Amino acid sequence: MRASLLLCAAILASCAAPGPLAPGAASSLEIPARFDATPAPVPQVADSLLGLFNDSRMRRAVNQALSNNPDLKGSLARMEEAGFNTRKTASELYPALDGNASAGRSRLPSVGESSDFRLSLDARWELDVWGRIRAGVTASTADQAAAAADYASARQSLAAQSMQSWFDLVAAEKRLALGNRRVTSFEDTNRLVARRFELGTASLADLELTRTDLENARADIEQLKDNRDRAARTLNLLTGAYPDAGISASSWPSLNRSVPSGVPSDLLLKRPDVDAAYQRLRAADSRVKVAHADLFPSFPLTGSVGNSSSLLSNLANSSFDTWSVVAGLSAPIFDAGLRQAELGAAGKRAEQALAAWQSTVLSAFKEVEDALGSERLLLQQEKSRLQALDAARSAETRTRRDYEAGISDLLSLFEAQRRVFSTEDDTINLHAARLQNRVALALALGKGV
């Protein structure tokens, strides 16, 4: 069964201005009642990203990133800037009061020298008859909400990146350990073939082949060390620390399974990037109202009270005895279509915001569908790889025994060894991919930090 979700109909219907954002511009998306790629049984995802795994060292790394990452600090500053912008826009709803003071001295031939001291308070206020200022405040408030959602999204994304970088480091260290075991295994094989060569039961070519595999394995170690150090530097960079290779992570975290993933429509409530796109749509819609109100006259009020005297002491001691109040009207007569063009442009910006909102929603659903689909496939792949690894180890043991007994050739032993290490390397990659995919699923579902 499919449920139709009307996007932004309430906002568009509330727009008082005629133009491109009339109520008929509301759009709809068909949202399924369940995710298409939901595996059986439905995977369970913890309430938060940090609740996914039981690893205190990884939690500390993530919390350090949330405290020290420069990019996240920049996102926080943008959110706080949006708050000040909202206050600045809201100040236009209230009268502004300025104090002015001046002093002057002049000399005229018929009068002589004279002094002039002035003190005044000037007020100005625009009557928001058409709601232009209020619409601007609504737009700024929506911008502020979008910035807050952007910050929440940045926190979630940074936490996910830090966790996935932790998995990359664990995988890199396990591959390095596997490379060292490969070297040890090839050293054992080289010694075995050398003994047989001394006994005359192995050829020089066999001995050179074992040395070839051994030296290649030793050369691979250097690349594995570099990969491990690069993974460590990436993680340190995310945590806001100097990007050295000192950090270590050698064991997989255990995976917790607790809270069901929910239904598709939950994304519209939980994902901050979806909320940010929606708030930008609200802001764009309000700015259409601002552009529409600019077509009509404005009503500024100005007032002033003050005093002037030739003596500074009189100015300070006397009450204000001069005042003025002026009500004005300013109306556009001819601007070569400037305001109409701005209204049309504002409407098109709102249409862009609506399209961006829809695209964000669809992308969010795709991310969940991809992660759910990969969840099932990666689990099955890992199970099969583990079974293959057991079989490869058993075959390698039997082949080595047969070679020592002289009933198997060296090439069969080489092939058995390579299959063991290749399959174990694939298993490491698959387990890292499973953990990273679980993080991606939680992030796609809008789970917080």
TrEMBL record:
<dbReference type="InterPro" id="IPR010131">
    <property type="entry name" value="MdtP/NodT-like"/>
</dbReference>
<keyword id="KW-0175">Coiled coil</keyword>
<keyword id="KW-0449">Lipoprotein</keyword>
<keyword id="KW-1134">Transmembrane beta strand</keyword>
<feature type="coiled-coil region">
    <location>
        <begin position="204"/>
        <end position="241"/>
    </location>
</feature>
<keyword id="KW-0564">Palmitate</keyword>
<comment type="similarity">
    <text>Belongs to the outer membrane factor (OMF) (TC 1.B.17) family.</text>
</comment>
<keyword id="KW-0812">Transmembrane</keyword>
<keyword id="KW-0472">Membrane</keyword>
<feature type="signal peptide">
    <location>
        <begin position="1"/>
        <end position="16"/>
    </location>
</feature>
<dbReference type="Pfam" id="PF02321">
    <property type="entry name" value="OEP"/>
</dbReference>
<protein>
    <submittedName>
        <fullName>Efflux transporter outer membrane subunit</fullName>
    </submittedName>
</protein>
<dbReference type="InterPro" id="IPR003423">
    <property type="entry name" value="OMP_efflux"/>
</dbReference>
<keyword id="KW-0732">Signal</keyword>
